[in-house]
C-alpha cells in the first residue's frame, strides 16, 4: 500500500519553505500509508489542523497575562520564565525530532507530540498544592517541547506525502501556523470574559489540540515504523560563514517574532487599551503577518540577491514594534499593522534563505536544523530581555529601544545573508 498523490500545477512560493528533516534517512522514509483519495484528504486535514495548534500556547497566555499575574500572584521572575522557556525549548528539542523519527516513525512522533501538547495545555491552569506556578511551568515546558518536534517534522510530512500538491498544502500549512497565533490572541480574552476566570480561557485551547489528537490517532498507529540509518557526508554548515549569517538573521527575527506573541498584548494594555481590543489588535497584526509571509518569498526569489528586501523588512519590524510602544495610541492600528506586515515578511524571507543559500536538499536540511537549534535558542533571549527590562523599569520604554537595536542588527545580518552566495562555496 502506498501514498495516493494528486496532480497539480507547479507549486507556489509557500512550498519552498518546507524542509524535509528526514532527507538524510537511509533507507529513505516512505510516504504515510493511505490507500484512497479520501484517506489522503483526511491526512492533509490532520496535518493542517496540527499546524493550527502550534502557536496558541504563546499568544493565549499573553492575552490574559495581567489576570494570571494578579490572580496567581506570580513573581516577576516567573513571568519572565513562562514567556521565555517555551521558545528556548523549541531550539533544545528540535535536534531530537529526526532522531526520534528514525526510531519510531514521523507519524508516531507527531502523535506523541500532540499528546504531550494536549497534556501541557490541560496542566497549565491547574492549581497544584495551593498554587498555579508549578503547573504553569510544567505545562508550558511540555508545550514547548512538543511544538519543537512538530515544527521540525510537520513540513517534511507535508512535502513527502503531497509532492504534487505542494502549492496547496504548503500554503495551507504556513497559513495555519500564523492563524494559530491569531486565534490565540483574538479569542482568549473573550473566553475569559464569558467564563469569568483565566483558567477557563487557557483550558479552552486544550480542546482543539485534543480533537486533532483523536483524529490523527488511528492514522498514526496504522503506520509501521522502519529503523533508519543516517547518510554520511555532506556540507558542514557549522563551518560556513554564510550559514552563520543566515542563522543569526533567523535568531534576530525570532527575538522579535516571539516577543510579539508574548508581549504585544501586555504592551497595548499597559498603554491603556482594554483586554478585548488589545487581543483584537494583536490578532489583526498577526493576520497581516500572513499576508507578508505569503508575498515575501516570491518577491525575494525574483531578485538576484535579497540584501535590500531583508534589510527593509527588518527595519519595518523593529520600527513597527518601537512605534507600538512610543507612537500615538490614536494610530496604534497603523503601528501594529506595520509591525505585522514587517514581521510576516521577515520570518518568511529568513526561512526562504534556507533554499536560496543552499544548492541541494541535504544542505538545506542541515542549515534548517542549525537555524532552528541556534535561532530559537538565541531568539528566546528576546522575550527574556523584554521581561527583565519591564521588571527592572516598570514599563516598556526600554523594550522599545531594544527592538530598534534588534531591528537594526537584523537589517545588517539580513543584508549580509542576502548576498548571492552559497553555503559550502
UniProtKB/TrEMBL annotation:
Transmembrane segments: 40-65, 77-97, 109-126, 132-154, 166-189, 201-221, 242-265, 277-296, 308-326, 332-356, 368-389, 395-415
InterPro entries: MFS, MFS_Cyanate_Porter, MFS_trans_sf
Molecular function, one GO term: transmembrane transporter activity
Domain of life: Bacteria
Cleavable signal peptide: none
Keywords from the UniProt entry: Membrane, Transmembrane, Transmembrane helix
Pfam family name, one: MFS_1
Lyase among keywords: no
Cited PANTHER family: 2-NITROIMIDAZOLE TRANSPORTER (PTHR23523:SF2), PTHR23523
Protein name, UniProt field: MFS transporter
The organism of origin for this protein: Arthrobacter cavernae
